Amino acid sequence: MSSKMQPVRGTRDIFGDDSKYFEKVINVASDYAKRFNFQFASTPIFEFSEVFHRTLGETSDIISKETYTFADRDDTSITLRPEFTAGLVRAFISNGLTQSTPVKWFSYGPIFRYERPQKGRYRQFNQINFEALGVKGALSDVEMISLGNGILKELGIIKDISLELNTLGDAESRKHYREKLVQYFSRYEKDLSEDSKIRLIKNPLRILDSKDEGDKKIVLDAPKIFDCLNDESKKFFDDVQDNLELLNIRFKVNPKIVRGLDYYTHTVFEFVTDKLGAQGTVLAGGRYDGLVEVMGGPATPAVGFASGVERLMELMKVDAPLFSKSGLVYVLGIGDEGEKAAAMLAHTMREIGYIIEIDHGIKLAKKFQRADKLGAKLALIIGDEELKKQKIKVKKLETGEEDWVNIKSLSLIGI
Ligand code: HAM
């Protein structure tokens, strides 16, 4: 086969067992969206490049080296979405919703980042994403965190996940912090990596996030945000922590969390696990009070998060494997008349709501093999003998036990 007939590096197909996990994630997220009164919203997979470039930060890894950006046929610069937030904020502004707050949106779908592929890290992956626009106050952040926490709990994976929290303060505190960082890092300028030399001018905060070993050593003694927070920012962060405690949501403050995107203010949080190797962040987000204004709308407080569906799926396979096949019933016809009767039975049972698998026109031995392989709970067998008696043979596949039942009494046996 030509290598062009393979999936592109960093992309994958979802089918078979994976599709059950995928569906479950989307169903649970949609259910929680309803409970928290979020509406489903879908924006295009590509936008004008400006939507992402200025807003996420020119010096962030995502923008500086990971976007899929190309010239459209009329030479307009287009970018495949590397996250949901900026596109949703664009939609919030361009659809004239800025006076209709709060706007609470749930989305899911593919995201594109040109990263180095490895387990849990893809170039096309899926996110579930929640944004609340026009909401202020620490309680809104806590509500968002409890939404994320609820989804992870419902998926059965919370036991291997912990919540880490930090604050980046408001604009004033950030400015103060930035000055302190510039002062500090300027002293080590010649030892910084080439990337961080640029960050020092454009966005010194990004240096804290550097993966370069030399940078990491310098970062160890860098000033801490907590020393630069004004009273209001301090109180905001205290309120977030106090109210998380009231909801019994456990967390750890981790001053190293700066997030990979530039738009955050105040609270940032990550739900992390050590069960997925290097790619431990399962769900992450925070407050972004300045983004709507940066994108041309009125000042609007907002908070949100996203979670990588593939990472959730991997964790579910470890912690909460799905056995959804157990409800499956295999209907098995023998001979021409038996096959016809089986097709009718399958039809009726599906209408009532049973999950039915049936194969037509294959050998009998093969049908039994298929019923086993599919992990069906029961096989309902109809052949000449059964037709004569107007009964169906019911075989419990786990135990091999067989029984004859009248078709009308099927619902009584609890399939
Ligand atoms: P993010 O931290 O860049 O945040 O991505 C959110 C989640 O997407 C990560 O925690 C991870 O689970 C998943 N993820 C990221 N990159 C990959 C990848 N290459 N392969 C597989 N999964 C990945 C955002 O995207 C923000 N927009 C979140 C947000 C919403 N903040 C406010 N509102």
Word description of this protein:
This protein is α+β, with helices and mostly antiparallel strands. Helix content is 38%, strand content 21%. It has 14 helices and 16 strands. It has an 8-stranded mixed β-sheet, with helices on both faces. Strands 13-12-14-15-16 form a 5-stranded mixed β-sheet. A hairpin with a 5-residue loop joins β3 and β4. α5 runs parallel beside α9. It is elongated and about 90 Å long. The chain starts with 16 loop residues before the first helix and ends in a 9-residue tail after the last strand. The mean pLDDT is 91.
Strand order of the largest sheet: 1-5-6-11-10-9-7-8
Enumerate how many helices there are, as a single number.
Answer: 14
What is the end-to-end distance? 45 Å
SS content category:
alpha+beta
Low-confidence spans: none
Overall geometry comes to: elongated
The main sheet comes to: 8 strands, mixed
Can you count the beta strands?
Answer: 16
The H/E string reads HEEHHEEHEEHEHHHHEEEHEHEHEHEHEE
Radius of gyration: 27 Å
Mean model confidence by pLDDT = 91
Q: What compounds sit in this structure?
A: histidyl-adenosine monophosphate
Helical amount among residues, as a percent range?
A: 25-40%
Strand content: 15-25%
Supply database-style keywords.
415 residues; alpha+beta; 14 helices; elongated; binds histidyl-adenosine monophosphate
